[in-house]
Design goal:
By secondary structure, the chain is of the alpha/beta class. The protein folds into two domains: 13-84; 101-389, TIM Barrel (Alpha-Beta Barrel). The chain contains twelve helices and 18 strands. Helix 10 runs parallel beside helix 11 (392-405) and helix 11 (392-405) packs across helix 12 (407-416).
């Protein structure tokens, strides 16, 4: 919906009000959309007058903020609202973390689906919620891809972690580096501890993708890890609890069902080594929670664009080509804009060119643009997103699950969109 206030000088803005109640078909659930002008500020609220969600209590008010554009409504310039799921398992916009385990709670819908048939949010460059030691003149605007630590990311529904290992000062970190330029993020030890604390509490699936490693102590040019350095990383990661060993005779993790991972209320953690044509051996860790990417077929090719429309056109075309049916190999939709050289240079003085600003351009498009491009046959399995700060990504994943679960749901959804 597009919402605007009467700003005529003769009008008391506080008298501008709008209310509408929505009922969700075939359920007793309902919510109100409220437009208010309070304390000098316009705001749009969702009042859960007749329902609760997995992050909001019955009767809660979710402030969506307000965006004015004063032109015909472009859906991605307004604050999006999405609510998805089945009765008792709804997920909506929320700055609060999910209360229960969303995959566990949705096992009745998802349990017999393979990983190829479900959708999971991924935090792009997971470890870069903080900036540590880096090269000269590197700023937050060109290296930080997240603002919340791993505990918060998992709490918002993220189930795929994009971990990029770095050795710096002899210690293991994550990092964001390119062409001998960049900075360190969170330490590998802290990430292991946060994942362990989460899976000890919530019996969920967590997938960790290892890629783009750098040994930054090497001079004058950084290099990739040697085998001894990989072994050191694997030793640290072996502290992870609930490491998943696949059933005897398995060759493809993506063909196992969700219930095989987390049925019987058990957590499961798997690590995928993306070799990218480099030679690294898992050694004694192989198939004991650690797997080569050959056991996890995933198409992952970002658009390398700083333009939202170009990125979406690129990724939607690849999705239709690479994921033509639910049993095709997994598809990662790269929903993060990429800074170009000019953006990196100007981001110091122009906040609109930072990674955080780029994320805001794309994240408001996620719900209205992605869901309408998905079909029962073609959809993403992984949502690669920068600056995850709410439950919108997991609500979008849930909408995709509902869409692919029921032909009638798909028909109704497309007619309403």
């Amino acid at each position: 919906m597009y919402i605007e206030w009467n700003e005529n000088i003769s009008v008391n803005k506080s008298q501008n009000r709008g209310d509408v109640t929505f009922s969700i078909d075939s359920t007793p659930s309902s919510f109100d959309l409220q437009a208010r002008y309070e304390d000098g500020d316009p705001r749009v609220n969702i009042y859960l007058s007749g329902m609760s969600t997995m992050s909001e209590a019955y009767g809660a008010i979710v402030n969506l903020g307000y965006v004015s554009n004063k032109r015909p409504y472009p859906r991605y310039n307004a604050i999006p609202f999405i609510i998805a799921g089945t009765d008792g398992r709804f997920i909506c916009n929320s700055p609060n973390r999910l209360s229960p385990s969303w995959l566990q709670l949705n096992l009745p819908m998802l349990g017999q689906r393979t990983l190829r048939q479900i959708c999971l949010p991924e935090s792009h460059d997971t470890g870069m919620w903080t900036r540590g030691k880096g090269t000269a003149a590197v700023t937050d605007g060109v290296v930080l891809t997240q603002s919340k630590d791993v505990t918060a990311q998992l709490g918002y529904g993220v189930r795929v972690l994009d971990i990029r290992p770095v050795i710096s000062g002899g210690q293991l970190y994550t990092g964001h580096y390119s062409d001998n330029r960049g900075a360190n993020g969170g330490s590998m030890a802290s990430i292991v501890d946060q994942v362990n604390a989460f899976t000890d509490t919530y019996p969920e699936l967590v997938i960790i993708r290892l890629q783009n490693e750098w040994q930054t102590d090497a001079t004058p040019n950084y290099r990739r890890f040697n085998q001894d350095e990989w072994n050191r990383l694997f030793s640290e990661l072996s502290r992870l609890k609930h490491l998943f060993t696949w059933p005897a005779g398995s060759t493809d993790l993506t063909k196992l069902t969700l219930s095989q991972y987390i049925g019987n209320k058990r957590a499961a953690v798997i690590l995928i080594l993306h070799k990218d044509s480099r030679d690294a051996s898992l050694g004694p860790y192989a198939e004991k929670g650690f797997y080569y990417d050959s056991a996890f077929p995933l198409f992952d090719q970002y658009a390398n664009s700083n333009d939202p429309n170009s990125l979406m056109n690129d990724q939607f075309a690849k999705m239709q080509r690479e994921k033509p049916n639910p049993d095709s190999k997994m598809f990662n939709i790269g929903w993060a804009l990429t800074q170009q050289t000019a953006d990196v240079i100007t981001s110091v003085l122009d906040p609109s060119k930072t990674i955080r600003a780029f994320a805001s351009y794309m994240n408001t498009r996620l719900a209205p643009e992605l869901v309408r491009k998905c079909t029962k046959a073609s959809f993403p399995n992984v949502l690669g997103i920068d600056y995850i700060q709410d439950t919108i990504p997991v609500a979008v994943a849930t909408a995709i699950h509902c869409l692919t679960d029921s032909p009638q749901y798909h028909t109704n959804l497309q007619s309403k969109l």
